[in-house]
Write the structure tokens for this entry.
Amino acid sequence: MAQENGNSSMEMGTSDQILVATKKSKKTTYAIGFVAMLVAIGVVITLVVVLSGNEGAESEPILTTEGPTFPTTIPTTTTSTTTTTTTTTTEAPTTQPPLPEIELEDIINGEYSSPSFNGTWTSGNEILFRNSNNDLVLYDVDTDSRTILIRNESQILQQSFRVTSLSADGNYVVLSYNEVSPGTKNPSVMVTIRNIATNTDTKLNAPSDLEEPILKTVSFVGNDELAVMWTNRVQTALRIDLCTEATQLIPATCNAIYRYTEDDGWIDNIPLLFNTQGNAFITILPAEVGGVRYKQIVQVTKLSTSGLWSSSNRINTAHTVAEILLWTDDNVIWYKATGITDRAEQHIYTVTSDGQVSCFTCNIKRPDGKQCLYNDAVISTGSRITVNCAGPEIPQIYIYDKNGTLLTVWDDNSRVADLLALHTIPVTLHQTVTGIGQTEADVMIQVPSDYASRTNVPLLVYVYGGPDTALVTKQWTLDWGTSLVNRYGIAVARIDGRGSGLQGVETMFAVNRKLGTVEIEDQISVTRYLQQNLSWVDGNRTCIWGWSYGGYASSLALARGGDVFRCAIAVAPVVDWRYYDTIYTERYMDTPQNNVQGYLNSSLLTDEVVEAYRNKRYFLVHGTEDDNVHYQHAMLISRLLQRRDVYFHQMSYTDEDHGLGGVRPHLYHALEKFLKENMF
């Protein structure tokens, strides 16, 4: 659940393609060693992956004259822009004979999986990837030639085996976790630099001016220095040191070059990218633009031989930066961020040394003339860029050069397009709702194509709700919820309110030290608004479901929502933050000792929840070998409900981890059975 980058919504399906990663080794005689204990409560999910190539890569590239007019220059702004309009991204089709339903089994089996760029740029114009036969192939973009480097003659499927301890008599399996809960002692951490040539070590201790420091990341700066990023235990104070190894005459030194303190929230796991000269680095931190703070690209530059370096906002643009993609030698930064006028969009941008921000993908058109409004990219060290046009239409992948010329359609995803042409696709609605305290909530609803002429449409809310996450985007979506809309004629809504990550950091920090409060209030109040203002919604048949943090959110929404929700499904939910891991929990909640009331208010193990469930329908699902949200959470709430004589549904999956990957058909059939009995 608690992925360290904060964007942690559980995927309901996976692609059968993988990246073939290659990386040139750094020429240095040093290595970094970490002496640390791992917090085993963190996410440990093993995937069984079958290597397969991109089917489209074996066919001739599809060329089109459509492409971006690059660059689209975006002026820096001093005012923020928000929208409160209602838009429909897919038009309802005209009357026609009923088309076949989208089968659940097809979704589980990955028939509609989005394509991924299953290659790695190995040079400015060459890509290493696996083809449909699982051969390792080198593709030259300039000559449009393919060279098979390694053939997969055996067609052997990869397997992943779980390693456990077996008792001497063979009757028992020993599973042990080193569990570190909030408020308990964290493991100590030390950084070690090893000189491979001399086989000597230099140990770098954690700074003494940070309380129980956490090591965030390390990065070589040239061949002789190491940058080390630390935070305090609750991740509100940041320190970056520049360190040198010890020699026979000079001891190791670590000097602080940058400090940052966040008074209103927390410090995320952020990147640390140095330039080739080693006199500047860039990262992602909050900065004010037009009176609103957004995640921006901050450059920190060395201006003198000693003391702290100087920081400045490189982009000064009112949108949220998601990722830094590349920092070139000519001081151009490529990055991924939300749209300027629509935060549900995601585009690829550049910013020059003089602060000119340009959008690379804002004018990209698909071969059918439709726009790419949700984009991702992989950039080569040369002049090539792979663009994943991931929405709102069926995803396609293109290769451009950096001046905006389309070179190749890597994958037109025609197979999925042909499959979906046989079905009626739900309509997607986007809306912004003003919620409690005049805050905005973004809403996306998948509805039947004839929704406008219907009444009494059941509504299912899919929630995640974790800090700095977002479900409402222009990314193409076809998942279990889409299948429910298609087969049962219900509507599925997603709501991003306070705590979500795309509206600026003040909205995100609204949940600081109080998880389980305002983000739950927004799910309830916005759902009530939809029931009262959408004439076709059946307010008496509204349920909510979620997985991981979403299971926690759905459980609280059912308890606190009054008559808004008739039922709730909680898959692998946290029930009390005192039993989750320290790094994730304390980032948002501080320690239990410092935030007693916050932990009490956020718990599901209360009389309020018990009594609320007495006349509700609640379905609890958990894997017994969940190594992220431990099965302990399910046992705690089930014991409480049972001892209070509150009836509920429960499904435990033996030996399944957090992803429940081995029982997906059974899981979704069980969820549908529950919804049929209580909502449809």
